[in-house]
């Protein structure tokens, strides 16, 4: 029997997500290019973000996944379970770490941070003020003409604006402006932990709340959709979906081969726009039977990193062939299928999938009410509803574009 979703499929709705990190990262990269800092940052622990292929953020994909969060008996702060393609799947700190390769773990003490502090940037660019908003930081980065200072301001902008993805009017962590002057200490800080915690706030969003807001709009002359902002390094969640769901990765991404961090394995195919990933197509895909990896586990070459982010604990003991197809019982299986089978068997054996909550007890009804809709009926109705909403949204967008063309003569 399929697990219970936090929001039933019959209540699913369209959403329009905003992730501000993409535009900020584009600007930071342009500034680093202008200041001849690209090779410098590529040599840093953040270098692979500059090496990664272009990824077009897909709000439709992220929203569709958030709708498929499972109910579990005990919630954990460092993992969320989803039911996709008739399979249970985990996203947690291990998945985030293997995707991003960022340092995670315990942070240094306040005393250690204070010992490395230097208020040069605060005095030079922010009049000695300890409270600095992200928007103000981005403005000073734009104006900065000192190469060393631009590098440090850019690193802070990358962490707060891209990895954590704060709103522009939110304060930057004051201590970071001070201990960034010691780059060796700065790069050892567990920035992955900071980004992951913020991402978990996004994954923990109450989708029923957004559904209720959508319901309030019924009867109005606007398309019924939820609009919300996502924070943390949300692209890691999208990379994970490509890595863990075979058909999704094949359809919407291009694989660059087996790499670490695993975000380097994926990029958006040339010419694909965010509008090309439609909620209706995702809904159909997620309701079909899919080959998935329930969890991500390290390859042999990733075990040292795995232990560094997992309190030194070794991974579950099993080998994963990552180089070639494997002949299983005379049938050729893809590497992905073989890995998924191995991982899923290990996950089942280790009892890693959390149990569902105890079913609610309902009093038996004496009336013979209508029978419950079949899953096929639910899927069809859902897709029709999403298709109708998307068509209306596209019409509104076309009208808006035509209005702008008429206004500016473009």
Condensed summary:
The chain is built from 19 helices and 8 strands. It is mostly helical and 410 residues long.
Specify the structural class: mainly alpha
Oligomer: single chain
Mean pLDDT: 87
* Shape descriptor: globular
DSSP strand (E) fraction?
A: 5-15%
Described by strand count, sense and barrel closure, the largest sheet is: 2 strands, parallel
State the separation between the terminal residues, measured CA to CA.
56 Å
The number of distinct β-strands equals 8
Number of helices: 19
Binned, the helix content reads 40-55%
> For the largest beta sheet, what order do the strands appear in spatially?
1-4
Q: What is the string of SSEs from the N terminus onward?
A: EHHHHEEHHHHHHHHHEHHEEHHEEHH
Radius of gyration: 23 Å
Low-confidence stretches: 322-326, 367-372, 404-410
